[in-house]
Task: structure prediction
Amino acid sequence: MLLNASAPSLAIFCKVVDNYGDIGICWRLARQLCHEHGFAVTLWVDDLASFRRICPDVDPQAARQVVQGVAVRHWQGQDGVYTAADIPDTVIEFFGCELPPSWVEAMAARTPRPVWINYEGLTAEDWVEGCHRLPSMHPQLKLTKHFFFPGFNERTGGLLREAGLDARRQAFQQDPAQAAAFLGRFGVPPQEAAYRKVSLFCYPEAPVAELLRAWEADATPTLCLVPEGVARAQVEAFLGVPALAGGHASRGSLALRVLPFVPQPDYDLLLWACDLNFVRGEDSWVRAQWAERPFVWHIYPQDEHLHHKKLRAFLQVYAQDLPALQAFMLGWNGAQAVGDWGAAWRALEAELPRIAARADAWREQVTAHGDLATKLRDFVCELGQAQENRV
Amino acid sequence: MKPAKEIRVGNIIMVDEKPFIVLRSDVNGSSRTGFTYKWKMKNLLTNAPLENVFRGDDKFDVVVLDKKPVTYSYFADPLYVFMDADYEQFEIEEENLGDALHYLKDGMECEAVFYDGKAISVELPTIIARQIVYSEPAVKGNTSGNVLKEAKLENAIEAHQHTIMVPLFVSQDDTIEIDTRTNEYKKVVRN
Result:
């Protein structure tokens, strides 16, 4: 597909720090701004190999390519030389990744100066509401960047959510044959497909071994689907062999299967196919909310336990009336001691129907004020129509 | 050039070749994506207020201004009066004091900052000790994680009495150390 030369131009800069979450979010944003909002998008990525794992269309050797209508450029460091002619109408730096100095100087030299957005990480902490859309004057150049924060209410930028998502999800979830066929791709036999199905995606710090033991001893059969490389040591301890894709074993009530790393669209199917999803970071956390199935979030660990503050802020808005989910998520993230994981699991299990029943209301609550890409587009238009970025 | 994370309330920074005084600084964010510094500032040439967000690594030229040790003396509505060792008095407008108002105490030592020969703000010591005048007792059993509670600090000016978040074990009448750069509790001062 060719890029539309007359469309407003926009560049997104993405530095891959945390495996696939950064590029996962940027790729969703890039596609949505391109396909739904008519921008000619160029996505600059420093790690094409990671990008390829979530989007197999990507050629990791290509300096320039067009993928699904989005121009993709390999961002090869800070030493590039750019002129005002290289600068698009809008520039988005993702998670405060530092743009090449020559690019920033070219931005200041462009007439009119581009709209410059700093796209921040998602958190439910209330300070975000006071920083969303605020300017950030460049200390030396005549340039103003604006901060844009995703979030859960109308005072923030909302969440990424593409058009048509619900229809696709509902079609999948209402057709058991689709889910069975999807799971069959990974060798899941019909007997296991009828179990309670759980996807498991987490950082290495999660108490996976304790949870697996709880499922082993549970009365209900559980099928745990874990992507290759996730919780490797604990999964290997359960399997008794290296945790490679295709590996599987059963013990007690638990059947565990190792899945290959799947592209982004298939990960959605996995979330939709499961009864409970353990997710991590930001991208899969948001996708789990759109899956409308109960989920447990493993948050990216940070120094001085700052992630616990972020977790508690989310629980405050999401799980105030779900005590077992709160306790389980705090324990899963090491924010609260869990003496008996079997008991914690049973409490969560008893609460799962309530969690599932309110998933739809949560989606409506969060999306009532619009989706992120639309709000970002509106903000970019607003800034672009302003007389000039004032400093 | 100084990164934003080292700039304090009361500092004068140059932005677009104009001098701004930083009146308030709120730090938030994460070690994952970097901290953000939300500053309330004022253009010293036009007096126009401004609110901006910066990343901790954004670098600014800090204007080195004349400073003089002073002590807070009294409030002469609408000005705050400070006095140096020679008993010379300097009046500073409330809006230029920013967060310093939260911590003013009679006889408090600080540094007056001068621009064009006029005292325009004060810089507080980085760490100050203040007594807690009110805080709820700790809730029994609620001790997990980083749970905090509000504590009201002693202050010379009632209208600017300030609360900060402290750990549950901190009690009313305790004296605590506060980092005036971040407005955060540091520790209890044990006698």
Summary: The first strand of chain B starts at residue 2 and ends at 3.
